[in-house]
Amino acid sequence: MIMNLDIYTNYIHSSINKSRQDYKVLRYETEVAVIRMGSGTLVLIFIAMLLVSITGTNIC
Questions:
Q1: Whole-model pTM?
Q2: Domain range for residue 8?
Q3: So what's the pLDDT on residue 58?
């Protein structure tokens, strides 16, 4: 019983550490995506303005 408990607690600890690592990776990817969005927003606005001028309709 005690052996199973040890295995169980080790499993919980490893899964917690894994989720922490996943969170760090996710946060890093989100920061990179935000930085890319900062430069990509201008391109998106430009494309949106092109679409508006082509279709002649307002997005709003």
A1: 0.39
A2: 1-60
A3: 57
Rounded to 5°, angle at Cα 34 from 58 and 22: 130
Residue ranges of the chain with per-residue pLDDT less than 50 = none
Element (H, E) at 27: helix 2-55
Tokens of 59: 């997005």
Q: What does the block give as tokens for 8?
A: 């169980």
Number of domains in the chain: 1
User: In this structure, what token pair is assigned to residue 47?
Assistant: 């494309």
Question: Residue 13 carries which side chain, given as an amino acid letter?
Answer: H
Distances (CA, A) of 35 to 28, 32, 51: 11, 5, 25
Q: What is residue 36's predicted lDDT score, i.e. its pLDDT?
A: 76
From CA 24, how far away is CA 51, in angstroms rounded? 38
